[in-house]
Each structure stands twice: as C-alpha cells, then as structure tokens.
C-alpha cells in the first residue's frame, strides 16, 4: 500500500469517526431515550483570542507594528463511548497564528479507541485514525489554552514555527498502563504518517518555498513512556520519535528524490505541590537530509538541543504566576551560531541559530470556564522565529521583547 | 521597553489588589466528606489507589462489568477541594489537568459535573454504576456510603 493511500485511509477513518459520532448521537437520542441521560456522548469546546506585541521581529502576524490580533484558537471536541471498551473521539480545530496557521478548519484528531482490557491493575488498548503525537508533556493538547502553563508553550521544544510535523499523525497506536501503589506507568507506541502539508513544514525541510516538487509523508514512529507517582506529585517521561519525510521533485527540479528525517528525544520531569509546580524538559533533536543531490544545505545532518525550566506558583485561589527560562540551540556543535553565519558569508546573523527566552506570566481563572492570561518574554536570539512571518531572516533583531495577552473560554 | 514598565506596574497593581481584596477568604469546606455510590454498586470499600483511578477517569468499569459513572461538583466548589485532598490525597488542579489531557487528546472522557449536593445525591441514586461524594449531613438511604482504605 502506498504511503499516500494509507494516509488517505487514515484521514478517512478520522473523518468517519467524527461523522459516526454525530450520527450515532442522533440515532441513540431517538432509539434509546433511557440511555440518553447516561450521556455516552460528550461535547467540549474552547475559544481563545490573543494579542501579541513585539518591539522587533514578527511573531504570529505583524506583531512588530501596532501588535497582532492574529492569534485565535477555536476547537470542538466530541467523544462517544457506546461501550466501556470502545470510544470514538474527534476534534475540529480552527487556528490562526500568523502566516504559519492562517485559518480554515482542520481535523485535529479523529480516531477509534478499543480498550481490550481495563482492570484496577492494568489496561491495554489500540487506537486507529488520526492521533495527536504523544510527545513531551504538552504536545497532545498544545492548542488548548487551558492545558498550557503559559500563552506560548516553550518554543525550544513546542515549535510553533514548525508544528505540523510533530502535531498529529495518521496510523495506529498501541497503549498500555500499569497501576500500582508505587505509581502508574503509561506506554504509548505508534506507527503513523505525519502531516507534511503546509508551508511551515516545507520551509523547514526545504529552506524556501521556491522548490518545484512536493513533500510526501512517509511511515514514521513515535513512542512515550510516562511514570506518575500514585498521588501525581512526581511525573517523569521519555518520548522519542522518528519522523520521515520524502521529496518528489517537480519538472526541471534542481533537487532529487531526497529524504528528510527528524529524530527528537525528550526527557520530561515535573513535581507538583499544592501551591507550586516545577517542570523541566530537555530535548536532543537530530535532523538529517540525504539524497537531494549536490547541494551543501541538503547533505548535512546535525543535532539541536532544547531545554527549559519552569516554575508555576499558585499564589492565590484561581491565580497563577509562571516563570520560565527556555533555551534553544539549532546545532549543539555551533551554539554561538558563528560557524553557521560564516558558512552563509555572514549574510545571516549568528543569533538565528540560538534563542534564550526568559518569560514571566500571570493567569487568572475567573471561573472554571473563563481564563485571562498575560506574559512578557525577554528574548536573546531568533532561532524559533518563523521565516513565514519574517521573510528576511538576515535582518532580524537579536535582543527583543514579546508581550502577549489572551482571553479563553471553554465548555 | 516602554510597554514593559507599564506592564510590570499593571501586574504589581493587580497582585496587590487581589491580595487585599480577597485576603483571608478560606476556600475549603470544614465538615466531613464521604464517597457515595448508587446502591447497586457491589463495593462497600475501595482502596485509595482504586478511588484515584476512578476519579482520574482511568478505570472504566466496576468488577461486574457495569460502566463507572463519575460525578463531581465544579472545580471551585469547597466540597470538591476537600474531597480531592482528603479522600484522594491530590490537589484539585491535578485532577483538572488529568481530565483535560484526556478530553482534549481524545483518549478519555471527563466526569459529569453537577452543581449542588442535592443534584449529586439525586443523580447518584438514579444512575446505575454512579460514584460521587457528599458532605456527611447530606447522606440518606438513597445512596450507598463507601469506605476508603488508607
């Protein structure tokens, strides 16, 4: 079976899951009025509007001018559990965030979950369709404002610049959980096709939008092992993935039938106390291009490094403060970016190869359904800036500030 | 840098405002809280870990195969806070994070939310497989009290 066909099938499965949910809902409502009050069907949603202002560079739209309102997230999440063993889940997402996400409605996930066994000591199951990639602590729910510790997730790991490749994939996932007095261990492993459409992936893999060919998705692997103490105080995780992307050259193309491989490894740790939580994640991100032909930029491989340390302090009921230091090196063997800058004949500045971000923020849960948040970033370097919002990466500002405010609602 | 200093002043002002206007406002309930189930649920006692699996929405059925239906009060209800801390030994925000992770990744479902203790008692008495909690003074014969092993 060809990759694209498999991907089409997975996408079809995802959309069928969604339509099945709505269909089954109406059938159940008519046929089984008694079951209706058991609410086998659940509908949730969220809505957010953000404002971003920077003093240099653009983030999520033209934030550098008068500020950008081009940051909006709207999601509709549905699930149907006709029996304890079977669940159908789906989420539709509309997201605007600068040039990288410019609207439209996408199937964020849509899959069928079959739970073979679920006892007090363990569970095991399988999922089929489009699933969020189990990646670090936050990727699974990265577009839901209420699940994020801050308006923007730490960009060193949860890139908004290149998000589609890590976001969700179409395929199969097996999962299992062991539950004991000393804690729970949850394991997820998936074989799936990542999403490679969208300009953000194209510009990251091919470095420009000028190439004539197309990216094509290839079979990829992802897995996460998560340990949680029984009282949830300590949480530890290790996630790894191998995302594969191919290239089909266009007519008269200068690039050959090459391939790109992204292999991240993430270590995650969190400690939760009543008034505060400390979270830290460290990632090694290996990137490799091969067989694109005789171009220096497409014959290399290097490893990037990401790290953040974050503290959340719940200083008053429904109020939270967050403080974070976030660090990104595009190439861990060139942390200063000087070799990179020299290799471009000093056309691109060294600070395009790193980013150090200190963030302070405040969040107010006005009610369980309404949240207001604000944050300020002091950033040195531009490694996670999107070239789509900043077309001329040779003229980015090295030291810059970002201010953000966001209002969110959910039901 | 202009907007940063304004921002910082704004935050400082807000923080002071909040601290003064709400200081001393205790948000916990000081009576006793009991775990209750539908009378048909075949368990008179549960271990703390099992209770955490149930309210964490990880366990989907009772031993006899009946689906577990979890009922809770809103996140900001004082009794909810007392229940999570006393009976589960976790904090309400941890429970909320766990539910959100399941709901918004499609891997689970959130519990049913009721708004008063009367509603909690009525829903649990009428829903097979239901589990929830009530303050001691609200308990009557329509529901079954479950003992939790420490």
What is the secondary structure topology, with strand pairs?
The complex is a heterodimer of chains A (411) and B (150).
Chain A: H1 3-31, H2 33-36, E1 41-54, E2 68-83, E3 86-97, E4 101-118, E5 122-132, H3 164-167, E6 168-180, E7 183-194, H4 199-206, E8 214-228, E9 234-248, E10 259-272, E11 276-290, E12 301-316, E13 319-329, H5 338-343, E14 354-367, E15 370-381, E16 399-410
Antiparallel strand pairs in A: 1-2, 1-16, 2-3, 3-4, 4-5, 5-6, 6-7, 7-8, 8-9, 9-10, 10-11, 11-12, 12-13, 13-14, 14-15, 15-16
Chain B: H1 2-22, E1 33-37, E2 45-47, H2 48-55, E3 69-72, H3 78-88, H4 92-103, E4 112-113, H5 117-126, E5 130-135, E6 144-149
User: Taking strands numbered 1, 2, ... along the chain, how are they ordered across the largest sheet of chain A?
Assistant: 1-2-3-4-5-6-7-8-9-10-11-12-13-14-15-16
CATH architecture of chain B: 3-Layer(aba) Sandwich
CATH architecture label of chain A: Beta Barrel
Supply the number of structural domains of chain B.
1
Total beta-strand segments of chain A: 16
CATH homologous superfamily name of chain B? Answer: Periplasmic binding protein-like II
CATH superfamily of chain A: Porin
Q: Largest sheet of chain B at a glance?
A: 6 strands, mixed
The succession of helices and strands of chain A, N to C, reads: HHEEEEEHEEHEEEEEEHEEE
User: Which chains have the largest interface?
Assistant: A-B, 58 and 47 residues
Low confidence ranges of chain A: 31-37
End-to-end distance of chain B, in Å?
55 Å
Helix % of chain B is 40-55%
The share of residues in helices of chain A is: 10-25%
Structural class of chain A: mainly beta
Q: What is the CATH topology assignment of chain A? A: Porin
Organism (chain B): Nitrosomonas europaea (strain ATCC 19718 / CIP 103999 / KCTC 2705 / NBRC 14298)
Protein name (chain B): PBP domain-containing protein
Protein name (chain A): Phosphate-selective porin O and P
Organism (chain A): Nitrosomonas europaea (strain ATCC 19718 / CIP 103999 / KCTC 2705 / NBRC 14298)
């Amino acid at each position: 079976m060809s990759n694209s066909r498999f991907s089409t099938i997975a996408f079809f499965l995802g959309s069928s899951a969604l339509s099945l949910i709505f269909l089954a809902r109406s059938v159940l409502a008519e046929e089984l009025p008694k079951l209706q009050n058991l609410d086998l069907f659940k509908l949730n949603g969220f809505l957010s509007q953000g404002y971003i202002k920077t003093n240099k560079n653009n983030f999520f739209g033209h934030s550098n001018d008068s500020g950008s309102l081009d940051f909006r997230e709207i999601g509709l999440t549905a699930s149907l559990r006709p029996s304890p063993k079977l669940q159908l889940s789906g989420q539709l997402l509309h997201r605007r965030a600068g040039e990288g996400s410019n609207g439209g409605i996408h199937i964020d996930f849509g899959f069928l979950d079959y739970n073979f066994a679920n006892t007090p000591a363990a569970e095991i199951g399988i999922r089929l369709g489009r699933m969020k990639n189990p990646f670090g602590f936050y990727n699974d729910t990265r577009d839901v404002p209420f699940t994020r510790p801050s308006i923007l997730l730490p960009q060193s790991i949860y890139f908004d610049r290149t998000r589609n490749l890590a976001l969700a994939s179409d395929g199969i996932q097996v999962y299992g959980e062991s539950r004991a007095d000393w804690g729970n261990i949850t394991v997820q492993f998936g074989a799936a096709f990542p999403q490679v459409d969208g300009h953000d992936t194209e510009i990251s893999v091919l470095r420009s939008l000028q190439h004539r060919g197309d990216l094509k998705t290839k079979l990829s692997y992802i897995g996460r092992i998560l340990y949680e103490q029984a009282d949830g105080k300590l949480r530890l995780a290790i996630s790894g993935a191998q995302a594969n992307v191919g290239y089909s050259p266009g007519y008269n193309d200068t690039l050959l039938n090459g391939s790109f491989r992204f292999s991240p490894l993430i270590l995650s740790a969190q400690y939760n106390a009543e008034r505060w939580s400390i979270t830290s994640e460290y990632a090694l991100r290996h990137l490799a291009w091969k067989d694109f032909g005789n171009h220096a930029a497409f014959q290399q491989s290097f490893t990037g490094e990401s790290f953040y340390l974050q503290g959340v302090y719940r200083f008053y009921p429904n109020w939270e403060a967050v403080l974070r230091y976030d660090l990104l090196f595009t190439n861990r063997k060139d942390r200063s970016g000087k070799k990179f800058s020299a290799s471009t004949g000093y056309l691109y500045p060294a600070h395009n190869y790193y980013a150090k971000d200190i963030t302070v923020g405040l969040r107010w849960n006005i009610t369980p359904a309404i949240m207001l948040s604000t944050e300020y970033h002091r950033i040195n370097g531009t490694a996670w800036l999107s070239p789509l919002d900043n077309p001329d990466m040779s003229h980015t500002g090295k030291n810059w500030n970002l201010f953000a405010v966001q209002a969110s609602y959910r039901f | 840098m202009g907007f940063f200093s304004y921002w910082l002043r704004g935050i400082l002002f807000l923080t002071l405002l909040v601290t003064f206007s709400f200081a001393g406002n205790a948000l916990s309930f000081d009576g006793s809280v009991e775990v209750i189930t539908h009378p048909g649920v075949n368990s008179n006692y549960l271990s703390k870990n099992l209770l955490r699996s149930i309210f964490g929405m990880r366990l989907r059925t009772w031993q006899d195969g009946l689906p577990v239906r979890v009922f809770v009060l809103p996140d900001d209800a004082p009794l909810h806070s007392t229940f999570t801390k006393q009976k589960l030994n976790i904090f309400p925000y941890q429970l909320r994070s766990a539910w959100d992770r399941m709901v918004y990744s499609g891997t689970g479902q959130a519990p049913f939310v009721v708004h008063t203790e009367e509603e909690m008692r009525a829903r649990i008495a009428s829903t097979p497989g239901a589990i929830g909690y009530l303050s001691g003074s609200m308990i009557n014969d329509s529901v079954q009290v479950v003992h939790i092993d420490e």
